[in-house]
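sorry for the late reply, my laptop died twice this morning and i had to redo everyting from scratch. anyway the thing you sent over, i finally got around to it. pasting the sequence first so we're on the same page, its 95 residues, then the predicted structure underneath. double check i copied it right bc i was rushing
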Amino acid sequence: MSNTTVTDLTIEQQLENVLAAHGEWIEGDGEAGTQLDLSGAFLAGADLSDAFLADADLGGACLHGANLSGACLSGADLHDAKLRRADLADAVLRD
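ok and here's the structure:
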């Protein structure tokens, strides 16, 4: 049995892992998991539909053409995020 390292995982798998840790952070009031920090990340074209991104740091992230439809972005830091052609249909952007 081999050990799995971050470099062995696809971008989608890595994103799934950090989103799961963020969910734990939210549910545990910061006692468990890790707050999502994708500040400055290159996520152009990423499928983040229906993702729970509340209180995440997306500052400066490149989200050009990303699918954020139905995503919860309440309290998320979108400072300087690039959202050109991003799909925000039914996204929650308020607290």
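The two ends are 45 Å apart (CA to CA).
thats about all i looked at so far, will dig more tmrw
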